[in-house]
Amino acid sequence: MVTAAVILGVFALLGAGLVGMTYENTKARIAENERQFLLRTLNEMVPAKAYNNDIYTDTLKVHSKELLGSAKAQTIYRARKDGKPVAAIITTTAPDGYNGDIKLLVAVDLAGQIGGVRVLSHQETPGLGDAIESEKSDWITNFYGHSLFAPDPQGWRVKKDGGIFDQFTGATITPRAVVDAVHKALIFYYLNREALFAPAESVREVPAPAKSGETHG
């Protein structure tokens, strides 16, 4: 005769199985949503018609705490057209935001010009520092077309510090951190442009940025 304990055990197993299936399905949906969000963000900076490779999987892992703001590996997304390099989209971190890390994507074309900058995540103050989001203001679009040498090193600062980029009313730390992170991402690109489009994926250490007063080029 089937006991109550056996019946309860069967239901427990069935319940655990359903929970496991639900978790896996939810996990898959979250992963796909994140993928679609990332692709939309990448295409805001590098139009889909400009490349024909799988930009989501054509990646390179790199290390540069000095230039990319984190000891962890950062991902470089490579855009190619018929196998030829078009742009590199660099994942980087501004570690000195007002409330912590600001994770960014910086798209740089072959000529070294910025195709766009977007914020992936941050914890900046709502109504102040969150103006770095493209949905909140157009401030982040001001990087478009600039390069490592245009403006000059002095220009790669907020206006309060003598540069060309606006700060926010009541919030200077956040834009200052983003400007510095974008500038360092350009230095990283300049130092590693050829390696960034190498066909094989690898993890690479890169040189530290030049000291104050030194130039690149």
TrEMBL record:
Keywords assigned by UniProt, alphabetized: Cell inner membrane, Cell membrane, Electron transport, Flavoprotein, FMN, Membrane, Phosphoprotein, Translocase, Transmembrane, Transmembrane helix, Transport
GO biological processes: electron transport chain
Gene that this polypeptide is encoded by: rnfG
TM annotation in the entry: none
UniProt membrane topology term: Single-pass membrane protein
Record GO terms (molecular function): electron transfer activity; FMN binding
InterPro entries per UniProt: FMN-bd, Ion_transpt_RnfG/RsxG
Gene Ontology cellular-component terms listed: plasma membrane
UniProt subcellular location: Cell inner membrane
Organism of provenance: Candidatus Tenderia electrophaga
Record PTM FMN phosphoryl threonine, positions in chain: T172
Major subcellular location class: membrane
Protein's name according to its UniProt entry: Ion-translocating oxidoreductase complex subunit G
